[in-house]
């Protein structure tokens, strides 16, 4: 990625010139800055970095800049896109570039750095999922030459020093890497005379060579490998069943799940969110995407038996009784939570002094005392540099106040409604009467951390990626909204427009984010979330990644997802609408309830209903009064004045009809912006509303055209820019492998941005993203066009770099799956829709006969094989779909295996696998069937032995990279060099 050209300059100066050059296409008002660790590059203050100037070179926009540095200069640096005020809009992904100038440079010589913008895909091989897990070495490689150090010196004029560098985390023991090419210094295509690369640490290999200018352009082949492909299993933590658990899956159960995964050929275990959701104190809290805290772990997953080695017999007996009582078909959320917390409190009383004074607890407490550290390389104002309190103290205080006031609604907490550090410190003070209660919450989180960390390390040693889930929202009554309310738009609600799941859309109830406020500290809250996740996970799924482009924002009072608008988006202005002949804004933006609707619902008594519940804002047009414009208000009013309606039908029928009418009150064409009355948003599916159908033809045609423009055209550039502001903050916060859940109404800008950022997408066969298809075709799913996942070539020569950039710019990464937690399982889907089942059997299976009414194991096997053989990087299967390949695991009604019903906002998340993990580990037939599927597909599968580290050198079974099928330009595969003094494998570039 760096071209170091040393060109003779003026002899009289006492410094060395440093010249930067990078091709990058910006938009109007944007420019590039190079910022680094030394003062000459701004000391990581982007506002003081080195500004680059643009210059067109053919179709490329080249940014250049120069500065003088002392001989022997070394630094780290990165490139940033900024606006006219030097505010950071975007920055490079991946690790910081490192530069170490060689000794012996003459005064006035110039070092030219020819770089390419680093995308997230450049760093995929070095994410923790691959570097620390899948390609975790069974042998130790010592650093031979430090990263960035230039070993070679110029000994003649008209020459340049070129440094070659590659990232290759899966190099096997006693393997060497060579670069061969047209230059004599690259062996003139002879491997034995090629340039050998040396290990520089962190999976990077590099070497320098002096090349004559006359040799340019230099040609050399680059390695193409068959892309790495792996398989995984997905299961919610609460769904796991083991012989040791207390009514629900527990973090320590992951160790057994990992054993089963390894023996079945899986490289990955995927979970749903595991953060604390204890908002309501009832089964509603089973919803894992409505977190009480984005940092705290859920007490539900605690193993109480592991809290102490000295649990008294009477408590052990209580645990055993609880095990038998809670061992049901489904999770009993309320009973399980109450039982675990009750037992944990008894153990806490016995050992609190020992634990709270231990070094391990104090380390845990200190580590989580501050929410984040100010990163040196971002410019922050003085007020933004003040460190806030960490998550642990506010979380414990919140839990105490929630229980004390018997509500999580912090607006009901009196003087504690508004959070402050002073109030917090008094609450958690050692002198406070509630200190033991506060410490109990510390204690629970400490043990949850220990148990999850133990399971996570076990997975890493076994070569299994543990994949977490990053929810898009937080509960509006959460620790996060209490501590940082300015980060949220509390008068709004998050959801999704109508789609495959629900024709009325979805209302998730979360407040939307105040992205403008979040950007002021470079999204520190998000970065802290990812830093916390990276303690346990090496990969994660970004829930509803579309929300980082734009979110479907609803009024707080909305019940469905119909009456929403995208945020951000470019609205329709009143001026724009008037130019088109649209002027009756009251008619279009207020509820369209006519007296005929009232007569239809309430017959002769419609006038009574209208006078009590409605306002007639225009002749024969009504809307609900302020005191009854929500379901809650209607129910309350009916109850308080039920005597007035004694002559009507029963109260339940009136309530239902009023609720139906309330839904109809959303029957509008344009949504007026509550913050700017001159801006409007077209209601989703406006053609389905009676308000639209009653319009004249001209108005219909204009509004249809503006509707299409709003939803499918005018926002694309805005959403593209928005995603490139927000998503890099997440991706650069950790080295986890990131995947994005990109289901639903997908704007055209989404996939190009995901490709640019190296994000893995999701493909569900029965929900194809390709137009005109009833079912996705797994064999057509995209993966990538080169070996970029396994072998990242860090290009040095400008001309070669530009060539590879063109070759690899349209890379796409996918996860394919037959189902997910938000839809029915494979068995349930097969059995619930006869028409779709027959269609699938004919078009996908290729049979004209009638399909079996049950999803027999042969059908499940066929569909799993389709997915495991797909080109997608990952094939991840819900555990229920895997169990469907064996008859004895299909006795439970298929509908009971569904995890979530997205159409029901109060769905009870309680599914438990009916077979224990221990039984699955013992089931050799099932493991053999699944492993044969994976082995036959060419996907990688992990070794069955644990990698151990002893005396600084890892020993054991090496992580298994797939068999490499290497193709080089004009060369056959070279595996061994007979001329070598010892047997040595050779990888050729």
- Bulk shape: globular
Summarize the biggest pleated sheet: 8 strands, parallel
Distance between the first and last residues' Cα: 15 Å
Strand content: 15-25%
Structural class: alpha+beta
Unreliable runs: 1-13, 371-388, 783-811, 946-989
The residue fraction in helices comes out at 25-40%
Radius of gyration: 31 Å
| Overall pLDDT | 81
Number of strands: 39
Give, in spatial order, the strands making up the sheet with the most strands. 32-23-18-17-16-36-35-33
Counting H and I runs of at least 4 residues, what is the number of helices?
Answer: 28
Give short descriptive properties of this protein:
alpha+beta, disordered C terminus, 28 helices, disordered N terminus, 989 residues, EC 2.4.1.25, glycosyltransferase, eight-stranded parallel β-sheet
Describe this structure in words.
The protein has about 1000 residues and is an alpha+beta fold. Strand 14 (about 200) and strand 15 form a beta hairpin. Helix 2 (about 255-265) packs parallel to helix 8, helix 14 (about 595-600) crosses helix 15 and helix 16 (about 630-640) runs antiparallel to helix 17 (about 650-665). The longest helix has 27 residues, at about 435-460. Mean pLDDT is about 80; it is low at about 1-15, about 370-390, about 785-810 and about 945-989.
Concise structural overview:
The protein has 989 residues and is of the alpha+beta class. Helix 3 (313-326) runs antiparallel to helix 4. It is globular and about 105 Å long.
Question: What is the strand and helix layout of this fold?
Answer:
Elements (H helix, E strand, L loop, with lengths): L3 E4 L8 E8 L7 E6 L13 E2 L1 E5 L2 E10 L4 E9 L5 E4 L5 E4 L9 E5 L13 H7 L24 E9 L7 E5 L15 E2 L1 E4 L2 E9 L17 E5 L18 H12 L3 E3 L42 H14 L6 H24 L2 H9 L24 H14 L15 H7 L7 H27 L3 E6 L8 H5 L4 E2 L2 E5 L9 E2 L4 E2 L1 H4 L5 H10 L5 E4 L8 E5 L9 E3 L4 E2 H6 L5 H5 L3 E2 H8 L3 H8 E5 L2 E4 L6 H10 L10 H14 L5 E4 L2 E7 L7 H4 L3 H16 L3 H16 L5 E4 L9 H8 L2 E5 L27 E3 L3 H11 L4 E5 L8 H7 L1 H12 L11 H12 L5 E5 H5 L33 H6 L1 H14 L10 E3 L2 E3 L29 E4 L1
Parallel strand pairs: 2-10, 12-39, 16-17, 16-36, 17-18, 18-23, 23-32, 33-35, 35-36
Antiparallel strand pairs: 1-10, 2-6, 3-4, 3-7, 5-6, 7-8, 7-9, 11-15, 11-34, 12-13, 14-15, 19-22, 20-21, 20-24, 24-25, 26-31, 27-29, 28-29, 30-31, 37-38
Helix pairs in contact: 2-8, 3-4, 4-8, 6-8, 14-15, 16-17
């Amino acid at each position: 990625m760096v071209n170091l050209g040393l060109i003779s300059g003026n002899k009289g100066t006492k410094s060395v010139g440093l010249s930067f050059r990078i091709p990058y296409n910006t938009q109007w008002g944007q420019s590039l800055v190079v910022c680094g660790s030394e003062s000459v590059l701004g000391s990581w203050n982007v506002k003081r970095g080195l500004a680059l100037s643009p210059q067109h070179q053919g179709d490329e926009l080249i940014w250049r800049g120069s500065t003088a540095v002392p001989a022997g200069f070394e630094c780290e640096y990165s490139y940033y896109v900024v606006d006219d005020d030097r505010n950071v809009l975007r920055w490079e992904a991946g690790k910081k570039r490192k530069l170490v100038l060689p000794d012996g440079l003459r005064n006035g010589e110039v070092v030219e750095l020819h770089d390419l913008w680093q995308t997230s895909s450049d760093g995929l091989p070095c994410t923790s999922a691959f570097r620390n897990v899948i390609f975790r070495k069974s042998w130790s490689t010592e650093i031979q030459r430090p990263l960035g150090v230039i070993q070679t010196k110029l000994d003649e004029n008209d020459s340049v020093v070129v440094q070659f560098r590659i990232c290759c985390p899966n190099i096997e023991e006693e393997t060497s890497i060579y670069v061969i090419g047209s230059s004599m210094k690259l062996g003139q295509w002879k491997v034995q005379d090629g340039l050998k690369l040396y290990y520089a640490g962190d999976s990077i290999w590099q070497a320098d060579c002096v090349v004559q200018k006359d040799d340019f352009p230099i040609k050399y082949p680059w390695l193409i490998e068959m892309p790495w492909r792996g398989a995984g299993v997905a299961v919610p933590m609460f769904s796991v069943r083991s012989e040791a658990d207390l009514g629900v899956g527990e973090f320590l159960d992951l160790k057994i799940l990992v054993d089963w995964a390894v023996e079945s050929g899986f490289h990955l275990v995927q979970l749903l969110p595991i953060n604390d959701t204890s908002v309501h104190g009832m089964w509603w809290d089973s919803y894992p995407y409505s977190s009480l805290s984005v940092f705290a772990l859920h007490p539900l997953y605690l193993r109480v038996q592991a809290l102490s080695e000295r649990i008294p017999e009477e408590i052990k007996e209580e645990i055993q009784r609880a095990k038998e009582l809670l061992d049901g078909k489904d999770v009993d959320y309320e009973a399980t939570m109450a039982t675990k917390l009750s037992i944990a409190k008894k153990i806490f009383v016995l050992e609190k002094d020992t634990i709270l004074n231990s070094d391990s607890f104090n380390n845990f407490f200190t580590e989580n005392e501050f929410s984040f550290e100010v990163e040196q390389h971002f410019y922050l104002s003085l007020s933004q540099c003040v460190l806030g309190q960490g998550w642990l103290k506010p979380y414990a205080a919140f839990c105490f106040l929630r229980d004390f006031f018997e509500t999580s609604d912090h607006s009901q907490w009196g003087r504690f409604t508004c959070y402050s550090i002073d109030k917090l410190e008094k609450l958690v003070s050692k002198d406070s009467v509630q200190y033991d209660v506060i410490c109990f919450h510390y204690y629970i989180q400490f043990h949850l951390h220990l148990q999850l960390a133990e399971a996570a390390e076990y997975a890493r040693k076994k070569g299994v990626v543990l994949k977490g889930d990053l929810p898009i929202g937080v509960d509006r009554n959460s620790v996060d909204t209490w501590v940082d309310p300015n980060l949220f738009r509390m008068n709004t609600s998050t959801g999704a427009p109508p789609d495959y799941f629900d024709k009325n859309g979805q209302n998730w109830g979360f407040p939307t984010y105040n992205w403008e406020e979040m950007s002021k500290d470079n999204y520190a809250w998000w970065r802290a979330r990812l830093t916390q996740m990276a303690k346990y996970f090496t990969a994660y799924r970004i829930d509803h990644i579309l929300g980082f482009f734009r979110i479907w924002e609803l009024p707080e009072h909305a019940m469905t997802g119909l009456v929403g608008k995208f945020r951000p988006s470019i609205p329709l202005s009143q001026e724009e609408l008037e130019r088109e002949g649209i002027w009756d804004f009251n008619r279009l933006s207020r509820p369209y309830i006519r007296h005929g609707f009232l007569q239809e619902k309430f017959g002769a008594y419609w006038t009574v209903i209208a006078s009590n519940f409605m306002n007639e804002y225009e002749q024969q047009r009504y809307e609900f009064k302020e005191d009854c414009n929500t379901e809650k208000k209607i129910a309350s009013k009916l109850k308080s004045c039920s005597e007035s309606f004694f002559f009507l039908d029963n109260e339940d029928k009136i309530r239902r009809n009023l609720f139906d009418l309330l839904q109809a009150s959303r029957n509008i064409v344009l949504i007026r912006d509550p913050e700017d009355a001159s801006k409007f948003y077209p209601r989703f599916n406006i053609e389905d509303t009676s308000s639209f159908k009653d319009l004249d033809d001209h108005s219909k045609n204009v509004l249809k055209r503006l509707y299409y423009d709003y939803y499918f055209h005018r926002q694309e550039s805005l959403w593209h820019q928005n995603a490139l502001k927000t998503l890099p903050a997440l991706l650069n916060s950790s080295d986890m492998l990131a995947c994005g859940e990109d289901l639903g109404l997908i704007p055209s800008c989404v996939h190009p941005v995901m490709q640019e950022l190296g994000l893995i997408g999701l493909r569900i066969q029965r929900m194809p993203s390709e137009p005109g298809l009833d079912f996705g075709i797994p064999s057509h799913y995209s993966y990538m066009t080169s070996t970029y996942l396994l072998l990242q070539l860090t290009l040095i020569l400008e001309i070669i770099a530009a060539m590879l950039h063109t070759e690899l710019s349209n890379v796409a990464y996918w996860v394919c799956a037959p189902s997910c937690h938000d839809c029915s399982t494979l068995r349930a889907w097969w059995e619930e829709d006869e028409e779709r089942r027959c269609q699938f059997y004919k078009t996908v299976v290729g049979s004209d006969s009638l399909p079996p009414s049950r999803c027999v194991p042969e059908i499940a096997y066929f569909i799993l094989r389709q997915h495991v053989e797909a080109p997608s990087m990952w094939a991840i299967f819900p555990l229920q779909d895997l169990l469907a390949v064996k008859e004895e695991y299909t006795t439970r009604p298929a509908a009971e295996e569904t995890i979530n019903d997205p159409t029901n906002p109060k769905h009870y998340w309680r599914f438990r696998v009916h077979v224990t993990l221990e039984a699955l580990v013992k089931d050799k037939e099932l493991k053999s069937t699944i492993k044969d599927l994976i082995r036959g597909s060419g996907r990688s599968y992990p070794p069955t032995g644990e990698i151990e580290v002893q005396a600084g050198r890892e020993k054991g079974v090496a992580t298994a990279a797939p068999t490499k099928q290497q193709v080089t330009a004009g060369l056959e595969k070279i595996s061994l060099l007979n001329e070598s003094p010892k047997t040595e494998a050779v990888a050729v570039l």
